[in-house]
Amino acid sequence: MKEVKGNVKKFLSRFYRQREIEDHEDIFALGFVNSLFAMQLVMFIEKEFNIKIDNKDLNFENFRTIDSIVAFVDARST
Amino acid sequence: MRIELTDEQIKKKDEFKEFVDTSIIPYAKDNDEEENMNPEMLKKVIESKYLGAPLPKEYGGLDWDQITIGLLNEQFGRGCSSAKGLLTVHGMCSLAILKWGSEEQRNLWLPKMAKGEAIGAFALTEPNIGSDAKSVETVASQVDGHYVINGHKKWITMGQIADIIIVFAKLEGKPTAFLVEKGTPGFSVKPMKKLLGSRAAMIAELTFQDCKIPIENIIGFPGGGITHVALSCLDYGRYTVAWGCVGLAEACLTDSLKYARRRKQFDAPLRKNQLIQKMITEMTVDVEAARQLCYKCGYLKDVGDPDSIVDTWIAKYYAAKMVNRVANNAVQIFGGNGCYNEYPIERYLRDARINEIIEGTTQMHEVLIATNSFVRYS
Question: Quick check: A78 contacting B, CB < 8 Å?
């Protein structure tokens, strides 16, 4: 779980450099999210955690915060 | 990162080269002059099963890795830009269904598309809308349990022969993707002729007039047409276009080498002329540099690296500009013969030009790449 969070934070830090994003912070509100980022985030999660993201998983709530991404990965990995 | 092909990829490359030499190149000149894809050639492409290259085996596809798919497009690009266009748009349509379609859509269309029993196309561009894709003017509305589409699409590769088309239209103001089948009432096709290049790509203008499609024919979700469906399809399109440019540039180079050996001026072959050697050098380095960018993209795609999307922009951008430089040099080496259709060089030049426009113009790529560079290299 801790490792998942660390990897997600490291990935997000490539796009948002002003400061470290808080675990519960809404990343869509930070202003750097666009369709390219969305595609890259999906690819990152699929590759990094070896899970397949389906159409039905593409719910903003799954990706809104670091905590929600970690919870999504955790749920799909078990 | 491996920078050499596997034994299997080398074998496939030889197979593709042989196929293009025997089943594509003999038709390329007539395809261009008649502005029509020769049905015999199309039959051979279908029989080769190459149209199923990117699709999983469960749907009858070949499930090839991205490098192998790149090599296929490179060879098709070497032989006939229009035939390469078929691989690109058929792949874009089938991958949209694979990635964003429902299980029913996948089961219905993908086996037919893998076999080439159904040809796919991708209809985004319109008479008034090119780069600004999110502003498509075609509209869809939900009426009595159906979607009804109204609008026009233009410059649609394979539009004349496509059996199934991904059409982008605004649904309640949000760009959305739909599947439209050939023969649907209200859907009509008008061939477009006298184009600069890719003249046999069966390009068409499509009209939708109260075209009623089943409610199940939405692809992805309302509002996801550009951001999700088109973006992922264009990623594949750009990758295959980049490889096609490498192939076309290689055709320019190898034809120029042959010509420079044979053609004599001042009692010596052209190749003895150092200014010709300069052009050959630039062409060689250009082709190799673009090929390496394409290999890198293929590798990143095969390992699922998020950077593959941006690297595909870079490869497509470079390859599209590169093939124009190389084709221009080829015309220069051929001189008058490069300006006449007795040789394929003038066709190469015309076909090369198209690549700076399709799947995102050079200028749109400059905006995208520069914007990303501020993130990537800061």
Answer: no
